[in-house]
Fold these 4 entries.
Entry 1:
Amino acid sequence: MKGGSGPDRTRTQITEPVPRSSWFTLVTVSAAVFMVAMELTVIALALPEIRRAFPEVTESALSWVVSAYSLGVGALLLVAGWLADRHGRRRVFLIGVITFTLGSLAAGMSTSPAMLITARVVQSIGGSMQFPAGLALALTAFPRSRHQFAIGVWGAMGGLAAALGPSLGALLISGFGWRSVFLVNVPVAVAVLVVGPRILIESTGGDLADRRVEIVSVPLASLGVGSVILGIVQGQSWGWGSTSTSAAFGAGAVMLAVFVARSLRHPEPLFDLRLFRLRSWTVGILGTLLFSAAYFSLAVLLPSFVQETWRWSVIETGLAIAPGPFLSFLIPPYAGRLADRIGNAPILMVGAGFGVAGMAWFLVTLTVEPRLDHFLIGNLLIGVAAGLCFAQLVGATLRDVPAGMYARAGAGRTTIFQLTLAMAVALAFTMIGEPEGSGAMLAAYRRVWVVSLVCFVGLFAVFAFMYPRRDRLPAVPAATRPTEVSL
């Protein structure tokens, strides 16, 4: 088994002191992660309320409230990562916070499903700028020997958002309506914008960022994935063999093929395929695909299952879901410290095991009759899995990436994460459909849970047998001179 050993570090390196300014940077960028991550858990709880607010909305259109955000982030993350590396991570990060705030305001004031989906796209533009720039700011501020710990804390803020999302979202929706789940971002963003300019230290990717890069193929790939998702979401109503469905799948395949061809031919592609020479990167990406499909096909639709099958209120649903995500908040900092000593793979294997146990428990115990105890056990098992996997997948994927490529490599990983999330949610909505009656609804959700279980099994196998002990990217040639972006 290849996945058990971690990097060779001494205790002196691991305990290297960290300046106070580094902690301030980590807190600031983590607050932004909290804001963006909160959006996902809260929107899952708000979907039934949005459905009731817009009776004309179809299930396929409702799925775009989630998928439009993920696709937008996926389309722009690598562009934003390159902009951050070249023009300043602090600058791009703060512009992203402003854009995300404007999108949140527009979503909170939406008067139609189309306006809400458009506002979610604006949010995605801001989110795409915050993620790679913020992570790069944190990694630049900390010594390399403490990167796994910094990533653990950064990831824990996403866990905290997931922990508070169900209960806070339930209170907001019950007291102020579904619009409040978007407007709640505003005070957090204002705090980041007040503190950030005073705390964050500007940094760039150096010579690696000052290159003539190709910025068309990655957004094109995201449009390709979006076209495939369109075919998946609309296939049932259009007809799986219809011209429209076939055209959507065909256009997606063509755009993805063009992305691969341009990335392979261009001397400086935005998505640097040389990263796949790093086995740790490749295996980490595969693990990200499996975890995203396993977790989000469950998490985004679980509140709808509880509210529509068991007829629980928003408050009851939020409080029932909260314990699992709360565990996912508590675990990452400790897992990060442990990863600095033993590596990411053993932790991810344990996390995948908890995921398998949680999905198996749901499949065996959940019925149309409400049972809080059965629900709580499965929810806690999945919470442990998320706490052990979220940040560890980031650390495992970026473990051997050169410092000058932090933002773009992080953006590449998160691009794949977001696109997989959008695909998983679209597939889950399609698999569930519009069943009539509690029994049919339970059977539909069980199909999704089986897929999640299989993906968790795959995640365990990937890090048990494929993840390397150590890896190194081949030397990157020095840039000749800074030039303009290539189209």
Entry 2:
Amino acid sequence: MVYGVMRLINFAHSEIFMIGTFASIGVFDLMGGASALTGVVLVGTLVMAGLAGAAASGVSAVVLERVAYRPLRRHGATQLAALISAIGASLFLQEVFALRFGRDNLTSPRILEKSTLFTIGDGQVRTDKVVVVAAAVVMMIALDRFVNGTKLGRGMRATSQDPESAVLMGVDIDRIVMITFLVGGVMA
């Protein structure tokens, strides 16, 4: 999303993903995720954890845009300056989380058993992989509908194609870039 609109590789996107993961696991633990949950309670807990992760990563992405990228964009900085800022933001977020949680591997609660549904040659098709692929397809369809079917999506496409013309047509570039970071963060 960010690259498509701004032509900027957001090196800190993996850290935005990490923030959402930590938020999801934290909410899952707070709601009793470590105990054996089943049925509606498990689904409700997973939905709450997912919403918390999406909110945390979305807000973090917007803050990142405001702090690391917007000042450079407003002052007409080069793409190299934005790239260096992205790498710096990535390293900063890594170190903040390393100070808080350490550098060792952390375990996360097992939510779904990794049972094999069937095999294709030497490859195993497991339940956890099917859930990931299904969720990715649903998210891609939702993102496609958003980008191609809404006024904000039209603004994103216009900004991506020709920012100067988009401004002349009344598109608020700062708002579009912020929403692009928000959507990218939520999708993370």
Entry 3:
Amino acid sequence: SKQEARTEFSALIDWTIKNAHTVDAILFYKVDRAIRNTADLARLEDLEANHGVLVEFIQQPFSHTPAGWMQIRNLANMATYQTQQQSIDVKEGLERRVREGFFSQVVPYGYQNYRQNNRGLVRVHPENGSKIKRIFELYAYHGERIDSLVKRLYQEGVYYSSAKPKFGRSKIATILSDQSYIGKIWFREQWWDGTHEPLVDYATWQRVQGLLNRGHYQSHELLFAGELIECGHCGHVITGESIKKPLKSGGIRRHTYYRCSKYNTIEGHPKTRLKESDIDRQVLGFFKQMRIDDESLKKWFVSVIKAKTESDQKLAVDEIAKLNRLQTEIRGKQDRLLNLRMDDEISKADFERKSSELREQEANLSIRLAGLQQDRHENADLAVKSFELSQNLIERWDTADYDAKRQILEILCLNLTLNGVSVDIEWRKPFDVIAKGLNFSASGEDRI
């Protein structure tokens, strides 16, 4: 009955018409169980008038006369009215609940429903709430991506449920893009403000959305494919193909090649195919160029990095003070706006619009402040760790799996380009300085 088409009801009528010569009557418990609209009523009247099959209602018997059918029509009209009115009441109730800040449906993973004073409320799930926080933390600040995050959670013992330990990839993607975790409710194709406790702060949420928009799903383990490298000839992405060749001994040898995705469709395009081992060898060559063997030179490099980052921290102090002043001004505007609304000097629509603008401005300032504060405390340590990473890349690469190698390349490289049979790298800072080599004549105690 919840389906508009009422497929079971239609199947009953069609079967009865087909077998009318063997059927005396069809039985319904009550009129409102059979008839939901005038079309249903018309079909039942036709069944009796034109096919000779009686229609009987066990709880509401009637005479099979014009007067009896008039009685059924009245009951059917009442049933139709009640069905339609109930639908309106339910929709209004759901909208009223959402406007009050409550979910209108099953709460998302990480929350749970409970009843208090005969009212359905929402709270953070005692176990799953912390799992949501961990998922956002790993994705936002620990370099994990969806595929590696699935593995990391399982390794840490963060299970989806006792019956299903591993989080699914699609479930992770849904969680990371669900605004419910910053206090919102999805209803009628838009997000509403909720009263439930947010599990994720706005700065982390924004960072995750930025990373999601830049991310690309890898459905395979072709290390240098998946939009990692672009073609130097035409600018299209390099794609990979894995070819299996049977051996006389009965085994299979796998060869992986990389080429431009458009080299068969662009006239005059070089027909270059490069083995994965050839690209791998070039990448290891780049790593060797970054290694510094002189221990005293390494210590000097680290000391200069620390001096530079400490200088940058002093410059950040003034910017933080400026942002704090702007944040105080916005909060003052919010207080004044609330007073105007309480005095009924502005409309509800204007209040909500302006209040939303101010919340957005404050959230953006919070993101910038959080970034500056984090930079002040972490930049020096991050720079030193980056240098240490550059010095043992070869060892890491040799023992890394697919996910770890992709992460290393994303940390080190802004762009990778295939020119003929050569791979060119555009390094991220500060790896560009290390890769180019140190210019001692231009270096000093506080600069490189």
Entry 4:
Amino acid sequence: MTLPFRIEAFLQLFADYNTVIWPAQIIALALGMVSLVAVFVGHANARRFAVAALGVLWAFTGIGYHLVFFSRINPVAPVFAGFFIVQALLFLACAVGPGDLRFQLGRDVRTGAGLVTIFYALAIYPVLGLFAGHGLMAGPMFGVTPCPTTIFTLGMLLLMRGAWVIPLSVVPLLWSLVGMAAAVQLGIAEDLGLPVAGLVLFGALGIAILRHGRGRAGNHSPRAKGLS
């Protein structure tokens, strides 16, 4: 995939965008951290807040970054904006709806992977950006740009359970592929965490689907019926 812009134009776009939207980055970071705390609280209203916060971050990124700014150098950006806005609406619908979407923390690999992914998005990602020479305001920032926001979301999805987890995972997983291509071609090293997080979520969902299928098959076996 050949990108229709140069790395210099890409980084300058971030610098311009971050300057215009300041201090939205601080608000987005606070929203992400409060959302993580809400996951540990475990109350239904806290869960709704965390999911709604994801919707707000995706909406802001889709409209503010993709539609208003990124479209200046990439003609496909409005399409990206559409996907991000759809994802935002899905999160907001899950936040207010009566579905079974919930967060589940345990002493298992999936929980550990989710928390590590979230920590990467909030803390390690910006540090790697500084070491790469982007500067604090001249690179992707959490909550207002696609890649760190998606990494954070992939981590949150690893902690989620319920029928809506798979539909909510489609766009973030697709963006992990788009972000991988951009990371390799543009040399944004911190974005390499995106395909890794996407692969982990994809594997976790695959395992969950297999277990669910085996559970349903077991429930229909003669032995299972005898124990029911």
